[in-house]
Amino acid sequence: MSLKSQVESGIKDAMRAKEADKLRALRAIKSLILLEETKAGGTGGELSADDELKLLTKAAKQRRESADIYRTQGREDLLAVEEAELAIIEEFLPKQLTEDEVKARLQEIIARVGASAPSDMGKVMGVATKELAGQADGRVVSTLVKSLLA
Description:
Layout: H1 3-17, H2 20-38, H3 49-73, H4 76-92, H5 99-113, H6 121-131, H7 138-149
Helix pairs in contact: 1-2, 2-3, 2-4, 3-4, 5-6, 5-7, 6-7
């Protein structure tokens, strides 16, 4: 089942259950999917699983950044909305790896690529971003790669 059909089904369920937060988050996801499908230069058809993952990752990142801003400003009302939407979006994302799991995967990648110095960070990050897409935050990966190659 594609992400679009999962979201549409979720919207119907949320409407029946009168879950306003879930409905708002699912409608936002559906809007992003529709925009991506109809953007200039797009295929006009279904999104690939990779495109869907990128879309959800971007939406989750936006919610996290907004939540951080609202937290620092003391806007608990807006913070609650962002965190609720983030929780719904994360249901569609693959399970996030712990820092230890990311570190282990990065050590495997470093060994496979043959990286040994900080100058090899680009090679490692290229492979790591593809393999860990949607499973780990890019900032965490970057920080760990720097510490492992130092």
